[in-house]
Automatic annotation (TrEMBL):
<dbReference type="InterPro" id="IPR053168">
    <property type="entry name" value="Glutamic_endopeptidase"/>
</dbReference>
<dbReference type="Pfam" id="PF14365">
    <property type="entry name" value="Neprosin_AP"/>
</dbReference>
<protein>
    <recommendedName>
        <fullName>Neprosin PEP catalytic domain-containing protein</fullName>
    </recommendedName>
</protein>
<feature type="signal peptide">
    <location>
        <begin position="1"/>
        <end position="21"/>
    </location>
</feature>
<dbReference type="InterPro" id="IPR025521">
    <property type="entry name" value="Neprosin_propep"/>
</dbReference>
<keyword id="KW-0732">Signal</keyword>
<dbReference type="Pfam" id="PF03080">
    <property type="entry name" value="Neprosin"/>
</dbReference>
<feature type="domain" description="Neprosin PEP catalytic">
    <location>
        <begin position="131"/>
        <end position="382"/>
    </location>
</feature>
<dbReference type="InterPro" id="IPR004314">
    <property type="entry name" value="Neprosin"/>
</dbReference>
Length: 382
């Protein structure tokens, strides 16, 4: 009973924050109906970003992940036991690029920011599942890698590819690691994505996702329990800023996914200094428990019309346009069974595009720093 009361107070507070921020009556009404409020035990602080995103700061030990039946007795791991060997080797890339930033939310230490998404609540889980499932239409331009691996890193040039507003499609670029038999594949991924149907806007947003091959269920961010966040200030689902401008300044994000050799959890770290965001507990998975045996690094369009009326991938320009115009991915390395970042074995890598009329790969190359390439294209946008 007491807990309910403090919950109401918190609600009232967040209501006041919204009113103070000058939001209209519609927002207020939405939050008066308590049955629509996420079922977090408590949130101590609500933060509204300039762009309208709203985050609740939630006790790190009460975050959504721990509602997962397999994580009932999970002991949170606040940092990786070690990092892979060979990090921070300088790239040979000849161009000057700046870092884009993930959304930084000032939650107190001991808490994690959880994005509210009013629009997403209206979209059925089935739809989300379809959009990130293989059933939907799918186009790709990137590098596939077929070998055992324990992580992948890449530096990704961030753009905001055009996606038609009510198409249900999305365009994303990132890293995916899989293992398991067809139809029951476990999978994890981290990417930036433009998906107007989920967010009601056309911004590049940063996401983590995964798929449980046994349950045949997909999920993104904290929408359903699984991903354990440790960072008190990275907002999953938040905007990546700034984004690159065609023929103008170029921005990148560094993403690293690696398996903790002691705890076997799959960690996500970002940025030049490899700041840990959180992890996918190894206990969520069957086939991905020990290692991955496939990875994909590149761009992807998926959704109901991704092939019939394709969105852009990358900058929306073909790879042949080169630096500043075509999007690039560089420093792609994989982590081998010695926990070491290495350049992918060329014989086990395949780069390509699912439809060369819409998307291309260019200037593909391999050196000591890994694989680099330009990728993407206009899709059906002309
Ligand atoms: C609150 O929302 C739920 C689900 O949308 C609905 O079933 C219920 O009738 C609403 N309650 C009130 C008081 O509006
Ligand atoms: C990965 O391993 C699974 C068995 O766990 C196998 O069924 C699948 O074909 C392998 N995938 C690749 C890409 O080699
Ligand atoms: C997984 O779920 C999809 C629907 O989301 C369905 O089409 C597919 O057949 C399922 N696969 C298995 C192996 O159950």
């Amino acid at each position: 009973m007491k807990e309910k009361k403090s919950f109401r107070v918190a609600l009232l507070l967040s209501y006041l924050v919204l009113v103070a921020a000058g939001k209209g009556a519609r927002t207020i009404q939405q939050w008066e109906n308590t049955s629509q409020i996420p079922t977090y035990q408590q949130f101590k602080k609500t933060i509204m970003m300039e762009d309208g995103d709203i985050y609740d700061c939630i006790d790190v030990n009460l975050q959504p992940a721990f509602n997962h039946p397999l994580l009932k007795d999970h002991t949170i791991q606040m940092e990786p036991t070690s990092f892979p060997i060979g990090l921070n080797i300088k790239s040979s890339f000849p161009h000057v690029v700046s870092q884009a930033h993930l959304s930084i939310i000032e939650c107190p230490r001991g808490m994690v920011p959880i994005l509210r998404n009013g629009r997403r609540d209206q979209i059925s889980a089935h739809f989300i599942d379809q959009a990130i499932n293989k059933d939907a239409q799918l186009e790709e331009a990137g590098m596939k890698y077929f070998d055992d691996l324990y992580g992948v890193q890449a530096t990704i040039n961030v753009y905001e590819p055009k996606v038609k507003k009510d198409s249900g499609d999305l365009s994303q670029t990132g890293i995916q690691i899989d293992n398991g038999p067809k139809g029951h594949m476990d999978s994890i991924n981290a990417c930036y994505s433009v998906s107007p149907s989920f967010y009601g806007d056309t911004f590049a947003r940063f996401h983590v996702g995964w798929r449980d091959g046994v349950q045949n269920k997909s999920c993104i961010d904290h929408d359903c329990p699984g991903f354990v966040q440790v960072s008190h200030n990275v907002g999953l689902g938040g905007r990546v800023k700034p984004v690159s401008v065609y023929n103008g300044p170029q921005y990148v994000i560094h993403i690293l996914i690696f398996k903790d050799p002691k705890t076997h959890n799959w960690w996500l770290a970002y940025g030049k200094d490899k700041t840990p965001v959180g992890y996918w507990p190894s206990s969520l998975f069957t086939s991905l428990k020990d290692k991955g045996n496939f990875s994909y690094t590149g761009g992807r369009a998926s959704g109901p019309t991704a092939s019939s009326d394709s969105p852009q991938i990358g900058s929306g320009h073909f790879a042949s346009e080169g630096y500043g115009k075509a999007a690039f991915i560089k420093d792609i390395q994989i982590i081998d069974n010695n926990n070491k970042l290495v350049t992918p074995n060329e014989e086990k890598a395949i780069s390509g595009s699912s439809d060369l009329r819409k998307y291309t790969i260019g200037n593909y190359g391999v050196d000591d720093h890994g694989v680099h390439m330009y990728y993407g294209g206009p899709g059906n946008f002309v």
